Amino acid sequence: MDNRLWLGRRVLTAVEITVVALIGAGFAVAQTPSPQKPLMAEEVFKNVRALKGIPVDDFMETMGLISAALSFDCSDCHTGAGTDRVDWAADTPRKVIARTMVNMVATINKNNFGGREAVTCWTCHRNRDKPLVTPAFETIYGEPTLVTDDVVTQAPGSPSPESILDKFIQASGGAQRLAAITSIDGKGTSAGFGGFGGGGAVEIAAKFPDKKATIILFKEETGRGDQIRTYDGVTGWVRTPLNVLGEYQLSGGDLDGARFDAQLAFPGQIKQILTNLKTGPQTTITDLQMSESQAAVQRNSTPGRTYKADVVQGTGPRGLLVTLYFDTQTGLLLRELRYSNTPIGRVPTEIDFTDYRDVDGIKLPFRIAYVWLDGRDSIVLNEIKTNVSIDDAKFGRPAPLKKR
């Protein structure tokens, strides 16, 4: 995962240091998690009190959500963070307060909303350590900022979700051609948020119906470390550079997301992998802004484009909430926005798809932006091959780290 930098304003560091003890947790040396028994947060981290009993990936996502809400990095809550003298497990005043706040949010939701996560850290903090308590006239009388709700409401008079998905399938090459695709292998370059490590060599491999690997390798001299996400149809893994854990097995919301991403790599099955479909109002979406340092790595990037989109929302694996945005003109998929559940709110992951080209009779995106709370990968593919042989080992646990 990317190490976020200071780019004109304070932004988060990567999940590797996302306030890992903000709610009283510290890194503890633990056994490597086995594929059969993913570890819970309290088995990996010391001094976990408020978030026991959740998988490691959900715990890491929770840390990212807290960090995003407060605009904090590790050094805001941990003495020595960013050095080799950090004490993650020590109880600092801010960590003690954070525990109280986590419990407060849970109590509010339990007593007032039947346990539904109607109130989260973001509800009040909105990228500030101290929530605003007084209306600002600039906000009241300024141009309103419209942010859509996570859950889409069926829009009266909108086309059916099935018709939008059918249009996507046809635009992608048609059901018959899509059904003939058994594997996809793309290669190119990737630039992380802030341009840290320079450009990396990327491979995105997928095998029908539900295996996928995204492998980003950086030059050894950068000290960046490799970034790998894999899913083999059952188990998922993440390896992230400079991460507290280095790598960890997925078993919570990230696992559901990895499975959906692997299935969506083969568009012909989109109507089978989503249920409870509904159509939202048409909307306009714009490419997320790219940092100057990231754009410097990918000089031919053209961010900031705007598209009119049809919106379809459905339910993925184990209740995963997924919103898809399709270009109203071409019918092609522009954006996937999925949400993992944590004890303190939904965690978004966004994947944008552009620069579609014809590959063996089907349309595939050659530009992919993978965005999460603690980073962004901007991927540009140079080539994509279909129906090639891919070793199943590529989708399993990443190979052991190289000694540097």
Description:
With 404 residues, the chain is of the alpha+beta class. The chain is 22% helix and 30% strand. The protein contains ten helices and 15 strands. It has helices at residues 41-44, 56-70, 93-113, 121-125, 137-140, 161-171, 175-179, 253-264, 270-273, 292-297, and strands at 26-27, 45-46, 183-192, 199-207, 211-217, 227-231, 236-239, 247-250, 275-286, 306-315, 321-327, 333-342, 345-359, 362-372, 375-386. The strands form two sheets. The protein has a 13-stranded antiparallel sheet. The chain has a two-stranded antiparallel ribbon with strand order 1-2. The longest helix has 21 residues, at 93-113. Residues 1-35 have low confidence and may be disordered.
Topology:
Elements: E1 26-27, H1 41-44, E2 45-46, H2 56-70, H3 93-113, H4 121-125, H5 137-140, H6 161-171, H7 175-179, E3 183-192, E4 199-207, E5 211-217, E6 227-231, E7 236-239, E8 247-250, H8 253-264, H9 270-273, E9 275-286, H10 292-297, E10 306-315, E11 321-327, E12 333-342, E13 345-359, E14 362-372, E15 375-386
Antiparallel strand pairs: 1-2, 3-4, 3-15, 4-5, 5-6, 6-7, 7-8, 9-10, 10-11, 11-12, 12-13, 13-14, 14-15
